[in-house]
Amino acid sequence: MALRIAMIGAGSIGFTRRLMGDLLTVPEFGDTTFALMDISPDNLDMVGQLCRRDIAANGVPAQVETTTDRRRAVADADYVICMIRQGGLEAFQTDIDIPLMYGIDQCVGDTLCAGGILYGQRTAIALLDICRDIREVARPGALFLNYSNPMAINTWACNQYGGVNTVGLCHGVQGAHWQITRCIELWAKAQGLLPADATLQRRDVDVVAAGINHQTWFIKVQWQGRDMIPLLPELFAAHPQFSRTEKVRIDVLRRFGYYSTESNGHLSEYLPWYRKRVDEIGRWIDLSSWINGETGGYLRVCTEGRNWFETDFPNWLQADPPRFVPEQRSEEHGSYIIEGLETGRPYRGHFNVVNRGHVTNLPDGCVVEIPGYVDRNGINMPVVGDLPLGCAATCNASVQVQKLAVEAAVHGDVNLLKLAMLHDPLTGAVCNPEEVWQLTDQMLVAQAAWLPQYAAEVPAAAARLAAAEADGTRVKLIETQGAARLQTKTVEEMQQRAAEARANAQAADKGKMTKNAG
Predict the structure, then answer these.
(1) Among 46-50, 70-74, 392-396, 514-518, where is mean pLDDT lowest?
(2) CB neighbours (10 Å) of residue 357?
(3) Is 215 helix (H, G, I), strand (E, B) or coil?
(4) 171 a catalytic residue
C-alpha cells in the first residue's frame, strides 16, 4: 500500500518518529512516503535525519520528504497528521506567565483555562488553513488526524468550519486505563484472586470512557465480569503511588463516583475548586512529576526537552535506532486507525468526534471523546447515552467555554473571547470581570504575532491597557512564580542526568501516561 502521509509540525521531537515507527510496524505500510513539514528548517532537518536513519536501519523501503511548504507536504496525501504547537515555546510561555500575574496558577495551560483558550485562538485558525490545503490538494476524502491541543476546540473548528473530516486523538484514556488496571491488580492479589507474581494487562480490564477530551469519565469498568466502579475510590486510596500523586482525581472520584481520564495536574486546572487559593494548591498536588500539578510543569519539560535535543543531537544519530516491531509499537491511536481503514483489521479506541447524539446529555455539535471502532468500513462511533449527571454538569460547563472559544477564534471576536475567559471555571473562580477583560487584552497584545484574525483588534486592546495605566484604573498585577514552580534546568544541569534528559526529549508522551502508568 503506497500511502502518502503528511505530518504537519514534524519538528516535534517525540511524535514524528514515534508515529512513523508505529506505522512502519504494519507490514503493508512499508512503501509509505512520509511528507514531513515544519516551519523550523533546523528542527525539520534534525528530525528528518533521524527518520531516514531509522528507516534504513530497519530495512524498509519507506521514503521521507522534508519541506517547509505545507501545501507541498499535503499534496496528494491520503492522511494528514497534525502535531503543531502554534507559537512554539515563546507563545506557550505567555500562556503560563501572564495568567499567573492575575493569580491563575496552571500546570499545563493547553486545553482550557486562560492559557488553553488563547492557545486555541492561535491553533484553531492555523488548522483551518491546513483544512483548506487538504480540501484543495490532498486526495479526495483524506482524513485529518489531529494531535494538537486544545483538542476539543481544534477538532470542533475543523469539522464545523474547515470542511474536513477531522478526528482528534489523545492518550489520556489509555493512561488512566493502565492506572485502573494497576489498582485492580494490587487489590486482586490482596484478595487472593491473583497469584503474587501475576501482571494484569490493560486488555484484561474492560472499560468504557465517555465525556470530552481531558474530562472523560470511566462509566464502565469490569474485571472478570465484576463491576469495579464501586470499588475504585477504595482501590485508588490504597494504592501506594496514586494516593500521593492523584489527589485531585481521587477527590473527584470520591465525590462524583467516577474516575477521570486526565492527569492530576491537568484536571486540577479544568475545575474551579482545587487551584483557586494559592495556599491550598500544595494540598492537592505532588512534585515527584510535573504532571501531578507543578506550576507551568509542561512548559518546563518541553523547554528542557527542546534545549537538550538541540544540544545532544549528534549523540542521537550515534544511538541505536528503534526497531519497527510489534512489541515496540506505542499505544497512540493514529497508526491503528490507519491500519484498520486500509487493511480491515478491527481496532477499538477512544476518539474525539462531533457529537451526533452519541452522548445524549451533551450538546449535539460539540466534540466528545467516546469509544469507536475502525475497520475497512470506516470509523464507527456507537451511541453511549447519558453521562452520569454530575459528570455531564462538569462537561457541559467546559463545552460552553469551548463553543465561545471556537466562535471567537473563527470570527476574531474579542467580546466572545472575553466571555469565554469569564466563563472558564478556574479563571472565573480566581478573577473578577474587570481582571478577565484586562487579562484578555494583555494576552492579545502579547500574542499578536500568532493571532491574524485579531489584527484589527490588537491596537484597541493596547490602547485600553495604556489608558488604564494612565488613569490609574489598571488592575494591579501579582508578583509570583506560582504555588509550585520549579526552575527550568540548564543544559549543564541536564548533562548530569543525560539519560533522563534524552528520554524526556524524545518522549511523545511526556507525562508517561501510557504503558508504564504505574
Answers:
(1) 514-518
(2) 10
(3) strand
(4) yes
**Catalytic residue (choose from 270, 274, 298, 347):** 270
Burial of 49 (0-12, 13-18, 19+ CB in 10 A): middle
Copy the grid coordinates of residue 313.
543531537
Task: Record the pTM.
Answer: 0.96
Residues 6+ apart with CB under 8 A from 319: none
Task: Identify whether the C-beta of residue 508 lies closer than 8 Å to the C-beta of residue 14.
Answer: yes
- Which pairs from 356-360 meet CB under 8 Å and 24+ separation? 357/383, 358/382, 358/383, 358/384, 359/210, 359/211, 359/384, 359/385, 359/386, 359/387, 360/384, 360/385, 360/386
Q: Which residue in this structure is represented by grid cell 477538532?
A: 155
User: HSE of 433 in the Cβ direction (CA atoms, 13 Å)?
Assistant: 2
Number of separate helices (H) and strands (E) present in the chain: 21, 12
Task: Name the pairing type of β-strands 215-223 and 205-212.
Answer: antiparallel
Residue 352 dihedral angles phi and psi, to the nearest 5°: -100, 115
Whether 274 is a known active-site residue: answer no
Task: Write down the catalytic residue from 79, 102, 147, 171.
Answer: 171
Q: Calculate the CA 387 to chain-centre distance.
A: 22
The CA-to-CA distance between both ends of the chain, in Å, stands at 38
The domain 4-88+117-169+320-339 is placed in CATH, from the list 3.90.1150.10, 3.30.43.10, 3.30.70.100, 3.40.50.720, at: 3.40.50.720
The percent of residues in the chain predicted with pLDDT above 90, rounded, is 91
What DSSP character marks residue 35?
E
DSSP sequence for 382-435: ---BPPPHHHHHHHHHHHHHHHHHHHHHHHT-HHHHHHHHHHSHHHHHH--HHH
For the chain, the C-alpha Rg in angstroms (whole number) is 22
Task: Label residue 517 by pLDDT band (50, 70, 90).
Answer: very low
Query: Is the Cβ–Cβ distance between 46 and 14 less than 8 Å?
Result: no
b/e map 452-470, b = 16+ CB within 10 Å: ebbeebbeebeebbeebee
Q: Among 430, 432, 440, 424, which Cα is nearest to 113's?
A: 424
Are 474 and 438 in contact by the 8 Å Cβ rule? The answer is yes
Alpha carbon of residue 35 to chain centroid: 23
Angle between helices 13-24 and 297-318 (to 10 degrees): 60
* Backbone φ, ψ for residue 462 (5° rounding): -65, -40
Summarised one tens digit per residue, pLDDT across range 323-341 is: 999 999 999 999 999 999 9
